[in-house]
Design goal:
The chain has 6 helices and 18 strands. 16% of the residues lie in helices and 33% in strands.
Length: 233
C-alpha cells in the first residue's frame, strides 16, 4: 500500500554501479574536512586538529559524464577529488574493526566548493552550507563493489582539468583511514545503508570555470569525467 502524499514524493537520488545495470540509492552525503596533510598546509590550517564532518544534500550527486552548471554567487569554485565510500549498512558507534562490514563499495567523486563563500562563512563563524552544499556539488563516478575491489588502503588519486594534472595524491596519505572515519562519524550520527562518505582531498585544489573538462581517477576503483557548464539562466 502506498502512502497518500500531499505532493509527489521527490525522486530517489542514485549512483551507477560499475558493471551492473542496478543503481545505488543515495540517502545522505557525508564529507570529511582536512584529511590529507598537504591540503591542510595549502589551506593554512592546524595540522594536529582532528578531522570533522559536514554534509551535502543527496540530490547534489552528478553522474559520470554529467555537466555541472557553474553555481550562483561564487567567483571561485574549487575542485576537490576524493575517495567515496558507499554504505550498505550502518549503526551507531561502529567499532573500527567492524567498519568495513558496512561498506558496499567505493567510487571517485568531487567535493565541489564555493571557496570564496566557504572562507567567508568560516571567518564569520557561520555554517558551511553556502560553500559546500549547493546544487550539483557532488559529482560521483560509478560505485565499484568492495566484493570486487577489496578495501583499498593505497592507490593513486588524481584529478586533471583539460588534460592537465592538478591533484596527484595517494590513498596511503589519508590521515584518518576509512574504518576510522566510519567509526568516528557513527559516534555523531546513526549511519545507514545508502549513506555515502567523501573522505577528504589531497593537495592541489584550485579554481575551475565554465568549459572545463574534469577527469578524476582512483587507482583500482574507477574514473569520473564531468564538464563545468555555463551558469543556469
Ligand atoms: Mn573535501
Amino acid at each position: 500500500m502506498s502512502a497518500d502524499y500531499v505532493i509527489p514524493p521527490p525522486p530517489q537520488p542514485s549512483l551507477a554501479v560499475a558493471g551492473s545495470s542496478k543503481l545505488f540509492p543515495v540517502r545522505r552525503i557525508w564529507c570529511v574536512g582536512r584529511n590529507y596533510i598537504e591540503h591542510i598546509r595549502e589551506m593554512g590550517q592546524d595540522e594536529r586538529a582532528p578531522p570533522f564532518f559536514f554534509a551535502k544534500p543527496a540530490d547534489a550527486v552528478v553522474p559520470d559524464g554529467g555537466t555541472v552548471p557553474y553555481p550562483s554567487l561564487t567567483k571561485d569554485m574549487h575542485h576537490e577529488v576524493e575517495l567515496v565510500v558507499a554504505l550498505k549498512s550502518g549503526g551507531r558507534s561502529i567499532p573500527v574493526a567492524k567498519a568495513n562490514d558496512c561498506i558496499y563499495g567505493y567510487a571517485v567523486g568531487i567535493d565541489l566548493t564555493r571557496r570564496d563563500l566557504q572562507i567567508a562563512s568560516r571567518d564569520l563563524k557561520r555554517p558551511w552550507e553556502v560553500g559546500k552544499a549547493f546544487d550539483s556539488s557532488a559529482p560521483c563516478g560509478p560505485i565499484k563493489p568492495a566484493s570486487e575491489s577489496g578495501h583499498p588502503s593505497k592507490g593513486k588519486i588524481t584529478l586533471k582539468v583539460n588534460g592537465k594534472l592538478r591533484q596527484d595524491g595517494d590513498l596511503n596519505q589519508l590521515i584518518w583511514n576509512v574504518p576510522e572515519i566510519i567509526a568516528k562519524l557513527s559516534d555523531m550520527v546513526a549511519l545507514a545503508a545508502g549513506d555515502i562518505i567523501m573522505t577528504g582531498t589531497p593537495a592541489g585544489v584550485a579554481a575551475t570555470i565554465a568549459g572545463d573538462k574534469i577527469e578524476c581517477e582512483v587507482e583500482g576503483i574507477g574514473k569520473l569525467s564531468v564538464t563545468i557548464g555555463p551558469p543556469l539562466k
